[in-house]
Amino acid sequence: MKSDTVKRGIERAGHRALLHALGWRRVDIDKPLIGIVNSFNEIVPGHIHLPQIAQAVKAGVWSGGGIPFEVNTIAVCDGIAMNHPGMKYSLPSRELIADSAETMAEAHAFDALVFIPNCDKITPGMLMAAVRLNLPAIFISGGPMLAGRREVNGKEERVDVNTVFEAVGQVAAGKMKREELEELEELACPGCGSCSGMFTANTMNCLTEALGMGLAGNGTIPAVDARRLQLAHKAGQQLMKLLADNIRPRDIVTKEAIHNAFAVDMALGGSTNSVLHLMAIAHETGVDFPLAMVNKISQRTPHLSRLRPAGDYHIEDLDRAGGISAVMNELKKLLSLKAKTVSGKALAEVIADSQNNDKKVIRPVAKAHSPIGGIAVLFGNLAPEGAVVKRAAVAEEMMFHQGAARVFDSEEEATKAIRRKRIKPGEVIVIRYEGPKGGPGMREMLTPTALLSGMGMDKEVALITDGRFSGATRGAAIGHVSPEAASRGPIAALKDGDIIKIDIAHHRLDVELSEKEIDKRLSKLAEFEPKVKSGYLRRYAEKVSSASTGAVFI
After folding, report:
1. 472 pLDDT exceeds 80?
2. Active site amino acids
3. Where in the sequence is the domain holding 179, given as residue range(s)?
4. For residue 271, what are the contacts with CB-CB under 8 A and spacing of at least 6?
């Protein structure tokens, strides 16, 4: 066992003495040391209950003959970090999470790992660590939050955190009273769990099942459901079987598994951030996955489920309908069914007994919302390396849009203009210098998009950025424009009034400028000056790659 490095031999007497201080017994020397990598903290609603999940996992590990040791990583709540400098730290935290999990596992010679993530960057960060370390590993998320409920005109309405962000726009437009907003604040998030729509956190926890790294139910069983604790106990037990059988993450997270994950992502209409994260996981695994491949998968994968923000259903509805296993069963002709999973079974066996219990929530392929997937990658002279849009959340009338650019060099400038009603119907808002290097940190732009939705302008105005969008974003919101402005991508050449053409159906994003004019404008720009001069963000900006390659360290 790897842990023999710290347990056996006369030269390890000091190591054993320290283990004894933790309650380890000499008779435990033959038992494997299992790292329980938990992202618990008390500021993230999706993580506040994770000690309970960890206890259930430990019970499973003990019952399987292992000795569990809980260690922790950081975790950022994107909702609380939204629309202030804190959001600059969200995507960069992914790399810290991967690095810290690696550090704790290697420094203490763990034999195998259980990862307990829940919110946006934690799940992909931990997946990156899992394939990097390649120790037997399994994932058990904290589970989704239930939707909130309120009464409107005598009828019950389900709400979530995105409802609140959009309500701010309604207040700004005079469509809602401040008192209604305050009531909504108290009802939208009724308890622990990752935010209740198909936002980034739930997208990634669902895709962990599709990758084969989580047991069935990992992505959809609600945080407050007793089945969540039962699944955690089972995960602890199953890890011990993975260790005994020497099944490792790189046996599971193969090129076929990544294709499966992207296909499920398309069927769900998941967060655009999933593209960044799956590409980063592919990079860690050594799988070559060009961005253009996303469109190829999308073109053959029907969009089966419309959850918030694209529709009215929430993750609890998806769980009731049969969860990710039911979605994969509907897609089985498009998936690599021989792919291995942490259950010890091939994917075909995992989904064999699943049933679609609600064909309104999970539509059959023959009655799909769309014959193509919910995410699209756009290319053109404005995005030579690509840009990403959540096609499933775009109104039909905005699938093609042409309008004059309104250019802003930060999220704050654009948000101020929207709030002051300075944006005209038909325009294209451009927010630049918010990319991985330029931000730095590639902030999410939920505030401007939620304002536009709340003000009723999401079907009149498009928004493009080299930053990111929240999984809760809807409308013609196109992010990850690459190369970014800080790297002198064409987006840096734009001026107010330039005509931008968005053609989502044909995967195009262009500006009516010649290549010669774009180059001329870029040549006149001053050298990019980083916004952050010290600390982690400065180091991040120096190391991070383009969004088109997953914004990984190079």
Report:
1. no
2. 470
3. 148-187
4. 198, 199, 200, 203, 204, 390, 470, 471
